Amino acid sequence: MSVTLTPGEVVLVGGGPGDPELITVAGLRALQQADVILHDRLGPVSCLDELHHNPEIINVGKIPDGHHTPQERINELLIEHARAGRKVVRLKGGDPYVFGRGAEEWQACTDVGVPVRVIPGLTSAVAVPALAGVPVTHRSLVQGFTVVSGHVPPDDPRSTVDWSALARSNTTLVLLMAMKYLPQTSAQLLESGLAAETPAMIVSEGSLPAQSAVFTTLGQVAEEAAVHSFVPPAVVVIGEVASLALHG
User: Fold this and answer.
1) pTM
2) d(CA 246, CA 226)
3) Is residue 158 scored above 70 in pLDDT?
4) Which among 19, 35, 40, 95 is annotated as catalytic?
């Protein structure tokens, strides 16, 4: 795709799982043209150190249980800078449309007439397991995968996930933002009939130098997370593919 930023436009850029080498060529070109860049905590923030044209850089990242910029304020900043005639890039980790609130930011801009477009990124739901040697599908093992947010526990009124259906789906389950409530989530899957010996994996700091992975089972996955003190960002994979570890 051709990447030429226009003054007054917002471009949502997916930066990939964190390693700066994994941002797309189009995403990097957008950063190199931006007048202002609003970035998250996750994603290839080190790319910003290599820019030579000195754009304004605004950290709007959210730290779990810590400082965060409200989404409404992020929307306001995008609109304010675009209306000032600036070339605006919103740099997000992974892909903007996979639990990245990219659609909310798109709607906020278009609702007030600010032009916006998206440059997709490599989602950690697929990239991080692959970097740990686990494919999310394998022809002889599983014919699909399901990506689920675990940011609220299964019994929370805000949860819209049918965990019982997932337990019966015979697909690989990829859980993002799942560390805090992994004990409840794994217990719900077990209660819903998924076998305790189902292979499972946790990958922490995926794509980064500190990447580490633990291979276990559904019945032990929450305990392993606690033993290894895993904290976000981490990806959990549950299913037969988690037994492969192709380059482990």
Assistant:
1) 0.93
2) 25
3) yes
4) 40
